[in-house]
Each structure stands twice: as C-alpha cells, then as structure tokens.
Design a protein that fits this description.
The complex is a heterodimer of chains A (137) and B (218).
Chain A: H1 9-18, H2 22-38, H3 43-49, H4 51-72, H5 77-94, H6 96-100, H7 102-116, E1 117-121, H8 127-136
Helix pairs in contact in A: 2-4, 2-7, 4-5, 5-7
Chain B: E1 24-27, H1 29-52, E2 56-86, E3 100-114, E4 116-121, E5 126-131, E6 138-157, E7 160-164, E8 180-205, E9 210-214
Antiparallel strand pairs in B: 2-3, 2-4, 2-8, 3-6, 4-5, 5-9, 6-8, 7-8
Classes of the chains: A mainly alpha (137), B mainly beta (218).
C-alpha cells in the first residue's frame, strides 16, 4: 500500500470512481450528449416553433445534467436515475427517436447502473475463486 | 456540487483491509434489474406504438444533408420561401461554403406521405428510416424543412405567388421580411424527392417504422 502523499493520480482516480456510480453517470451523460449532437437544428427555426421544438433540446440537456449530477452528487442517485430513465425514454418521442436509438440506449443503461449501484460493497469475487472456496469448504 | 459529501468518506483514512482489498461501491445487478425490466418494457411499448402509427415522434435534424423521398405527398396549408441556413461555427460540413447554405424553406401544416424513406449519409453507410410502406400512411404536422433540392410533380390549390415572406399565414412559419415567397391552401406532390438540411419540430406518425443501416440511400 503506497503512502497517501505519494499515491499516483491513477490510484486516486480509482478511489474516486469507487465512491460513486461512475459508469452509470458517464453513460447517462454521454447519451444526452449524443442526442444533442444529432439535433443541432438552427435555433432560429426552433424559435419559429416554440415550446414543442424546445422539448427536443430540453430532454437531452436534462440527461446530460442528470448524468453529471450522478457523478458529483452520488448521494441523490436514486432520484437522478429514476428521472434519468424517464427522460431517456421520453427522448424517443421528442428528439429524433432518442438520437436514433443510440442515445436512448446509453441513457437507460446508465440510469439502471446508477440505480443498482451501492456504496461500500465487498470486493467482487471472481467465479473461479468462489468455486475454489466452495470446493475447499 | 463537487464539494458535496462523498459516500463512505466518513472515515478520512480508511485502513487497508488485510484480505479481499478495499471496500468500494459497485453495481448490484439484481437491484439494477428492478429499474431495467420496466424500462425495457416501456421502451418496447414505445417502439411498438410508434410502428403502429399510434404515437407521433418529433424530429429536429440539421447540419448533415439528408434525403427524403415519398411516392406521394398530400398537404394542407403550404408555404415556401428562400433563406440562408447558418451552420455551427467551425462545422466540418461547411467546406468552401463559408458555413452558409442557401435553402428553400417549405412548411406544411399537415401532410400525409406514402412510402416515406429518409436517409442520412454517415460517411460510408446510410441510416435509413422507412415508414408507411403498408396501407396506413405517414402523417406529419407542422413539418418545416430546409431543402437545397426539391423535385417532384406538384400541383397546388389557391396558390398565392409573390407574397412577402413575413406575411405568410397558411402554416406556422414566417420568413424574413422582403423575401419572395408563395403559399397555397393545399399541395399535392407525386414522386417527391428532397435533399434537406433541416427538419424541425415535425411530429411524425410512422406506421410500419423500420430503422436500419444500408450501403445505399433512398
């Protein structure tokens, strides 16, 4: 075990990831970004349409925001992930079929991972190791 | 936000555990499934409802040229005027155009399309969306498209040609003041083929939706 002062940035990042649903938040944020990229319609035209056109931008922007919130405020992850999954599903209707399905899939998978994440778990035991333990017992 | 308390950081110096490594957070798959199963069901339900044409979906695409074809288009409330589309600064699609594309904006208040096919060139492969191949037709409301090319056999009812684009009132779009425009009560176009730069806030109902990749476009 390295001393705290001499830990590499890599190890610090690993610790940081271990304290939050990292992949869940990242996938949700990426899903929102992907949908936003597919619909860079000129704002001028969106203004013609009003609220209805705005929803197409609001939902992916919310996904991006919720993904970042999961990363930086993991204590509230249940609320963020439930809203995240609803917003991701809603983007099918408002935003190019959920960024042609890719962003919707990322958002739903990310939300579910964030929902299922629990802090302070036993280290994962590989299947081979478990089998060996059972054989030994 | 970043200063919010991290979980399990109550102990400032967690002692390394002798065996099994440090305790970290991780995903419990059974718990994730509690959310994943209903989400999958809802997603499947949305896709099925869309494919049956019971649910409308909204499109807003821009920056990439894409092609729309249909064997027949019938619409009420039609407007058309010229304009300039600006791309995002430094867009890779700008080329030598200076980031501006001269487009024809067409707005149709409500339209029905037969055998709609829409393709986006992603470089090497095409994303294809097909709908309305069967008996039920595609319907769209407040369809606004910016096209660079438009072809087909068109006929109009009660057409007014030469209006100022800012005075149009048959559909929901307004053009810039002092620009040539035309509008009509109804429009009928056979063998429609459009190269578009933007479709905005068109709510489509897509019965018989098929989404896929293909080597050739529409």
């Amino acid at each position: 075990m390295a001393e705290p002062g001499r830990r590499t940035a890599r190890a610090a990042f690993r610790d940081w990831r271990g304290r939050r649903p990292f992949w869940g938040g990242l996938l949700l944020a990426l899903g929102g970004a992907e949908i936003l990229l597919t619909e860079k319609a000129s704002l001028k035209v969106v203004m013609h349409i009003g609220m209805q056109g705005l929803a197409g931008y609001l939902l992916p922007a919310l996904m991006l925001l919720l993904g970042l919130l999961v990363l930086f405020n993991p204590a509230q992850r249940l609320f963020y992930s439930i809203v995240g999954v609803l917003v991701s599903l809603g983007s099918w209707l408002t935003s190019n079929l959920g960024g042609f399905f890719v962003g919707l899939l990322l958002g739903v998978v990310g939300s579910c991972l964030a929902f299922g994440w629990l802090p302070d778990q036993e280290a994962r035991v590989s299947r081979r190791q478990r089998r060996r333990e059972r054989a030994g017992a | 936000m970043a200063s919010s308390p991290d979980l399990s950081s109550t102990d400032p110096n967690p002692a390394p555990e002798p065996a099994g490594g440090v305790r970290r957070g991780r995903v419990r798959y059974r718990r994730a499934a509690v959310l994943a199963v209903p989400a999958t069901l809802v997603a499947a339900g949305l896709a099925i409802l869309t494919a049956e044409g019971a649910l409308g979906v909204q499109f807003a695409i821009s920056g990439m040229p894409f092609t729309v074809t249909a064997t027949e288009l019938n619409g009420t409330g039609f407007e058309q005027f010229g304009g300039l589309d600006n791309m995002a600064d430094g867009s890779p699609n700008a080329g030598d155009t200076g980031g501006q594309v001269l487009v024809v904006t067409s707005a149709i208040k409500s339209a029905t399309l037969t055998k709609l096919c829409q393709s986006v060139d992603l470089g090497g492969t095409n994303l294809l969306i097909k709908a309305g191949q069967g008996r039920t037709k595609v319907t769209a409301t407040d369809l606004t498209t910016d096209s660079t090319e438009l072809s087909g056999n068109a006929s109009f009812d009660h057409i007014e040609i030469g209006n100022d684009a800012s005075t149009l009132n048959k559909a929901n779009a307004r053009g810039p003041i002092g620009v040539f425009s035309q509008q009509a009560d109804t429009v009928h176009i056979a063998n429609l083929r459009q190269t578009n730069y933007a479709t905005t806030a068109g709510v489509f109902k897509l019965p018989g939706l098929k989404l896929g990749f293909s080597d050739s476009g529409c």
